[in-house]
Specification:
With 67 residues, the protein is an all-alpha fold. 96% of the residues lie in helices and 0% in strands. It comes from Cavenderia fasciculata.
């Protein structure tokens, strides 16, 4: 193997390693984003459910008053 061939091989290995690390960073970001989004959606869902119960209660109260 010539010196330039070895050098190119190392450069390719370094490039591949850099790509792998960047892919891992993207995966980590996406996993954190997924968890954060799921938590926020769960919170919104809880608030929406509470509002729906309140609307149901108010509708019942108004219906009772009107009767």
């Amino acid at each position: 193997m010539s010196k330039s061939h070895i050098q190119r091989d190392w450069e390719q290995r370094e490039f591949n390693e850099e790509i792998s690390l960047n892919i891992q960073k993207i995966i980590d970001f996406l996993n954190k984003f997924d968890l954060s989004t799921r938590n926020k959606l769960a919170t919104v869902n809880e608030k929406l459910s509470m509002l729906e119960r309140q609307v149901d209660y108010l509708e019942s109260a108004i219906k009772t008053v009107n009767e």
